[in-house]
Design a protein that fits this description.
With about 280 residues, the chain is an alpha/beta fold. The chain has ten helices and nine strands. Helix 6 (about 125-140) packs across helix 7 and helix 9 (about 200-215) runs antiparallel to helix 10 (about 220-230). About 35% of the residues are buried.
């Protein structure tokens, strides 16, 4: 597996691979890889001749009060995981390699960024779209793999690719969970043992709500109420948002009568966790 910090080196490899007619799958990550990432890398491995993993904590998608400085990092462990799955190249640039001091071009997706995490993290999705665009350009990938755990991110990247005619297929992959249902996330490592136990409440609340929708509940306010009641019963939990939006435009709805995304963000202690489900 090739390890590189340099855009130029990735481009040279890509040029050679393209010349040989090889297909390229890209898995964009911020590192500290877990089984959720592993599932994306495995899928990319199955579907492409070449697999590139990017491992970059992207500073421009963090707000000034967010956890950029403390975001967990373990590059050696990331390399070992990528190598064990058979990735061909891991790209691990420094921020200076990705952003020149006078960098001033950003990509943003309007409507879909308005609600959910977009409303609480104003710079986040522009930062994601900008770095993802750069990674698409650098890797010239045929396919890119994103987890449904970040459902709003997945929808936004898909829309950006459609609206701006990027030559890449976006593959969404299911959420990978711990045995008790907690969605895998690099940020789970911030939880102390009591908080880790309490964090299962996100999945419990969503499971209850999904069952109600599948049984015929169409009132979005009732779905939000079911979720909020369960979360509020957990003393260590504090709701950031509980939202029911249509799965095309990510706009809040009152009546569920088409594909729907139910998404939540909850603080467990100081740790903000997100989770969701989609009913197509
Ligand atoms: O989902 C993530 O880890 C990041 O938002 C991404 C897509 C790698 C962009 O930095």
């Amino acid at each position: 597996m090739i390890r590189t910090e340099k855009i130029k080196e990735v481009k040279e490899c890509v040029k050679a691979w393209k010349k040989e007619g090889k297909t390229i799958g890209l898995v964009p990550t911020m590192g500290y890889l877990h089984e959720g990432h592993a599932s994306l890398i495995k899928k990319a491995r199955e579907e492409n001749d070449i697999v590139i993993v990017s491992d970059f904590v992207n500073p421009i998608q963090f707000g000034p009060k967010e956890d950029l400085a403390t975001y967990p990092r373990d590059f050696e462990a990331d390399c070992a995981l990528c190598e064990s799955i058979g990735a061909d190249l891991i790209f691990h640039p420094e921020p200076e390699e990705m952003y020149a001091p006078d960098f001033c071009t950003h990509v943003g997706v309007a409507t879909l960024s308005e609600h959910l995490c977009g409303a609480r993290r104003p710079v986040h999705f522009n930062g994601v779209c900008t770095v993802v665009t750069k990674l698409f350009m650098i890797s010239q990938a045929d396919r890119a793999y994103f987890g449904q755990k970040d459902a709003q991110q997945l929808a936004i990247v898909r829309r950006m690719v459609r609206d701006l005619n990027y030559n890449i297929e976006i593959i969404g992959c299911p959420i990978v969970r711990e045995e008790d249902g907690l969605a895998k996330s690099s940020r789970n490592t911030y939880l102390n043992p009591m908080e880790r136990k309490a964090a299962v409440v996100l999945h419990q609340a969503l499971t209850e709500a999904e069952a109600k929708i599948r049984a015929g509940e169409t009132d979005a306010a009732e779905v939000r109420r079911i979720i909020s009641n369960i979360i509020e019963d957990e003393p260590l939990a504090r709701i950031d948002y509980v939202e029911v939006v249509d799965w095309n435009e990510l706009q809040p709805i009152e009546k569920i009568d088409g594909p729907v995304l139910v998404a939540i963000a909850v603080f467990i202690g100081k740790v903000r966790l997100i989770d969701n489900f989609i009913v197509e």
